[in-house]
Design a protein that fits this description.
Layout: H1 13-16, E1 21-25, H2 50-63, E2 71-72, E3 82-84, E4 99-102, E5 108-113, E6 117-123, E7 128-134, H3 136-141, H4 143-153, E8 162-165, E9 175-176, H5 178-187, E10 195-197, E11 204-206, H6 208-218, E12 222-225, H7 240-246, E13 254-260
Parallel strand pairs: 2-5, 3-4, 8-12
Antiparallel strand pairs: 1-13, 4-7, 5-13, 6-7, 6-8, 9-11, 10-11
Length: 263
């Protein structure tokens, strides 16, 4: 039974250790949405009730210690684009991007996901944070490295940056076709190790989690993961792929958020 009283996000001990940083990997619990969107759906592009989505976003912002208008999200488009956020922007004028960075206290940067990997970044000493939506295309084209570089331009140091991958789809539930395998192995032959043969000819199971963590490690940051699967844990997470397999008409999106606390 989903808890509809308040959100209680998952957290990482790695990010809890960052000075003056608040973060949460929110689950699907603690909101007001009903049916297939039950209950903390924050997807502005879903067919859920707009009033319910607004209330869910307000609850997330409140947990983060920010007013609703300071919960900042972008129009995610599976890109490697990163924006620097100096002030909140209205939800109806969100830039097209898949990552954000800021050094402004009180702004909660949020990325939505329903199988893709949400990654939260923090350099507590420099007081710079970031958030990235990391699907296969964004990871392959450099959204993680671009986020780190954008944080450095704000004064962060990659040797001090901690990055944590939140709930995302596991290899066991992520079957892909031959054209997908070709994209990765053409980019780097070593990428073959992230694929394991599935029971379908020409298809394989892709380890998005390990691929993400390895790219973060190669970029020189301290990386960790919650190790949770969005597809397998139906009570806790929305999943685009699970919805597709069942032929359901739509799906919710969970949010992961990070902010600098105001001293």
């Amino acid at each position: 039974m989903l808890d509809k009283t308040k959100p209680e996000p998952l957290r990482s001990p790695l990010l809890d250790g960052a000075n003056g940083v608040r973060h949460g990997f929110f689950t699907r619990s603690g909101g007001v949405s009903e049916g297939i969107f039950g209950s903390l759906n924050v997807g502005l592009g879903s067919s859920d009730s707009p009033d319910a989505v607004r209330e869910n976003r307000r609850r997330v912002a409140a947990w983060m210690g920010a007013p609703a208008e300071h919960l900042v999200t972008v129009h995610q488009c599976h890109s490697a684009a990163v924006v620097v956020v100096d002030e909140a922007f209205p939800v109806n004028s969100r830039p097209n991007a898949d990552a954000m960075v800021t050094r402004q206290p009180g702004l909660a940067l949020g990325v939505l996901a329903a199988d893709c990997g949400p990654v939260l970044f923090a350099d507590g000493e420099a007081r710079v944070v970031g958030a990235a939506h990391t699907g296969w295309k964004g990871a392959l084209t450099g959204v993680l490295e671009n986020t780190i570089a954008a944080m450095e331009r704000l004064g962060a140091s990659r040797e001090r940056i901690t990055a944590v991958l939140g709930p995302s789809i596991s290899q066991e539930n992520y079957e892909v076709g031959p054209e997908y395998i070709e994209r990765f192995t053409s980019a780097d032959a070593e990428n073959a190790r992230y694929f394991r043969l599935s029971g379908k000819p020409g298809h394989a199971l892709f380890d998005l989690k390990l691929y993400t963590l390895d790219r973060l490690a190669r970029a020189g940051v301290k990386a960790g993961t919650l190790g949770r699967c969005t597809y397998a844990e139906e009570d806790n997470f929305f999943s685009y792929r699970r919805t597709t397999h069942r032929g359901e008409p739509d799906y919710g999106r969970q949010i992961s958020a990070i902010c600098l606390e105001e001293f």
